[in-house]
Write a structure and sequence with these properties.
Number of strands: 8
Structural class: alpha/beta
Helix content: 40-55%
Shape: elongated
Radius of gyration: 21 Å
Strand order of the largest sheet: 3-2-4-1-5-6-7-8
Bound molecules: guanosine-5'-diphosphate
Low-confidence stretches: none
Order of helices and strands: HHHHHEHEHEHEHEHEHEEH
Amino acid sequence: ARLKSGLSKTRRILTTDIDELFLGKKIVDDDMIEDLEELLITSDMGVQTTMDIMERISGKRSRIAGAGELKRVLKEEILAYFDALPEPVPEAAAKPHVVMVVGVNGVGKTTTIGKLAAHESKKGRKVLIAAADTFRAAAIEQISIWAERAGAEIVRHKDNADPAAVAYDGIEAAISRGADTVYVDTAGRLHTKVNLMEEIKKIQRTLSKRLPDAPHEVLLVLDATTGQNALSQAKMFNEALGITGIALTKLDGTAKGGIVVSICSELNIPLKYIGVGEGVEDLQPFDPKQFVEALF
Ligand code: GDP
């Protein structure tokens, strides 16, 4: 239900407009193909992905005899992208399971960590958060509030401390206190892109020095309302760090939910979580079938 209401803005456009495409028509004609193409691009599925889908739909034209049928075919095509994604990293393969969380400021990194920590705690897992975004004092405060709310432990230093040192202390504390999961928050200031990537790479190296396979997960948080911009951010972070999973926030705030399809078709990275609201329950594991059902 939350997923459905969260995606209502996107669904309103896709569903209503597809229904309208068929008004007074029985077969798929060229005008309709053109309108559908525009519709998919408007929903932010991306030019490449839209072209791809359109080509395959064109081949099935004779099979499509109404809006319901068209939606069914679209669902099939979109699911095929989700099915082709690699398997995500298992949640609890290692102890502690170390998740480094990255993304530019404002995408919802702090809240995502808070929500994930809350979910884990609720399952009875012991969670520790390392506040390695030391660039903003406010970030340390905010993540501490989330940690407390989630019943998670926090490792923090003063602001402007060395982020890699915080990360090291975090993993050290997690090992000695027997934590199940460690979330390492990182900085996301964008105006010094090169320095930022070097800083995060240093955190990554420091974690693996203490625990050879860590970080087990490099989770990238993206903001769905930024549309295709999110895709360029993903490429940038992936090149520098090797992203193993994506959390896409704020899908409730946009009619451009097609960005989910764009991200899944153009990046070979599992989409693990989607955010459809500000509450803890609004961060959900991404379920391809439920998602396409909620979309149309
Ligand atoms: P950070 O700078 O990346 O750490 O971003 P924050 O975690 O502080 O989040 C920025 C804002 O986005 C906050 O007001 C969050 O409540 C909001 N936010 C995060 N995720 C979602 C979501 O899925 N839906 C909505 N509507 N808001 C969200």
